[in-house]
Every structure is written in C-alpha cells, then in structure tokens.
Amino acid sequence: MELGYEKPLYILAFDHRGSFLTLAGIRGEVTSEAARRIQDAKGVIYEGFRKAVEAGAPPEAAGILVDEQFGAEIAWDARRRGYLLAMPVERSGQDEFDFEYGEAFGEHIEAFDPTFAKVLVRYNPEGDRALNARQAERLRKLSAWLHERRRRFLFELLVPPTPAQREAVGGDQDRYDRELRPRLMVQAIRELQEAGVEPDVWKIEGLDRREDCQRTSAQVRSGGRDRVACVVLGRGADEAAVVRWLQAGAGVAGYVGFAIGRTIWWDGVEGYLDGRLSAEQAAESVKSNYLRMIEVYRSAERAAVAG
Length: 307
Description:
Elements (H helix, E strand, L loop, with lengths): L8 E5 L4 H6 L8 H23 L7 E4 L2 H14 L2 E5 L16 H8 L3 E7 L6 H20 L3 E7 L4 H6 L4 H22 L6 E5 L4 H11 L8 E5 L5 H11 L5 E6 L1 H12 L5 H28 L1
Parallel strand pairs: 1-2, 1-8, 2-3, 3-4, 4-5, 5-6, 6-7, 7-8
Helix pairs in contact: 2-10, 2-11, 7-8, 9-11, 10-11
C-alpha cells in the first residue's frame, strides 16, 4: 500500500478522555456509573454525526475519531455502517507518548480494524532530547507495524513551547503560535521522518498564514512522500480561530480536510450533561456545527482554486 491519503477527510474527533472527565465533573476513580455517563455523552456526539451524514455530509469523506475506553460500541457501529473510523493508540493525558495497551497495542488495532490508527504526540525539537528520542523510537515501531500490515497512520503533532521559548515571546501564546511554532513544527516533522516515523496523514495545529501551511505541507511531502496529507486540527479553540485556520489551509497542496473536536461538540455536550439541552437538541448542535465546518473548508478550497 502506497504511503499517504489523497481523498477529502472531515473527521469529527471525540476520542478525548481526560477532557470528558472534566466536562462531566468526574474526579478520581472512574466508576461504572461515571463511565456510562461519558459513553452516553459520546453517543450524543455520534448521533449528531449520523444526522450530519443524513443531511448531506459527504459519506466518503466524513469520519469519526473515537476511543475504545468510552466509545467501543460507537466504533463497532461505525465500522458496520462503513464510516471512516480513526482510533487512538496513545495513553491519554501523558506528556510522553506511550501505548495505551503496551505491547498489546496491535491486538486492539486488529480487533477494531479502524481506517486509521491515531497518535497524539507532544514533540518540541528544541526540548528534551532524551524524551524526543524515546518517543521517536516507539513511534517508529508503531509506524513499521502499521505499514507492514497495510494499515493507515494518523499523526497528531503538538509542539508546546519550552520555558525558554515561552520567555522569548513574553509568555504570549499567540506570539508563540505565530512567530515560533511554524518553524518548530516543520523541524519536528523532519526529525520524526528521519527517525523512520511515516504517517499517512498529519494532524496539524492551526496556522494563520497560508505560507506556513505551504511550508508544512512541503515538509510532509518531502523525499518522495507525494501522497502524504495534512489535516487541520481544532485544538479546542473558539470557532473564529478554527475558521481562520481552515481558510489558511484549504486549497494548499497536500491539505485534504480537518479533524476537529471540542469546537464542534463542547457546547452541545455541556448543555446535555447539565440538563439545559435534551439529547436531541445536543445532537442537532453537533450536526449543525460539523456541517458548518465542512462548508467553511470546502468554500475556502473552492475560492483558492478559483483564485
């Protein structure tokens, strides 16, 4: 199977685990009752996704990213219905990437047979070198395992600032995102590629400038990786920021869509969990927000082609 993915890809991401515990007000041990509460909330998001597909979200491009811990039944149903399905491999809430199920990671991937196995990795090329090397080795192992079995790899790269980088921009996250992160992200991708980590699709933190999207995509596709793709991730940002990032990436060669989560479903799920919204109302909120993000991306893509 050739490396990469060239089709449109609009992923509704709700593989979050720690975020859901916070949203549901759950602290400490996750009881069976607490787990059911989170599963129920994820079911509302999935219902919103299904409604969006029925309302016109392109079925060949629409997909979900959901976890095994709280979303196993959703994953099974998505596979039965033929939806694009991505599932995480990483242990949740860790600064250092490691496998959720240790050496048994492959058994879990094969059991669910997702379209994409996904990882979330925090990697700053100017950060802790030993940490980066440990992560790269585990990721190389996963990359090789997946491609040996003709399975696709979705890589979510986060580049958090080091203390020195944060100080250099006066503690201003927006300045870091604008002035430092684009260069660091390209460097991180290059280092991971050189370490033998070969995703089919990279989930890229939002970039405000189109030229930064172009540089990132050029690195992703360097060295003959001509079909490898980028998608824009939402990072839980407000809708205005996410729209800006989608518009910057749409139409750039190598960008094929997005993987957005909390920006789409947070308000609906929060309203459902605190009783302000019914399940139907919350699902409608998810549906509307998801369809709007698809239209924002596709409209920007059409404008870029026309221009």
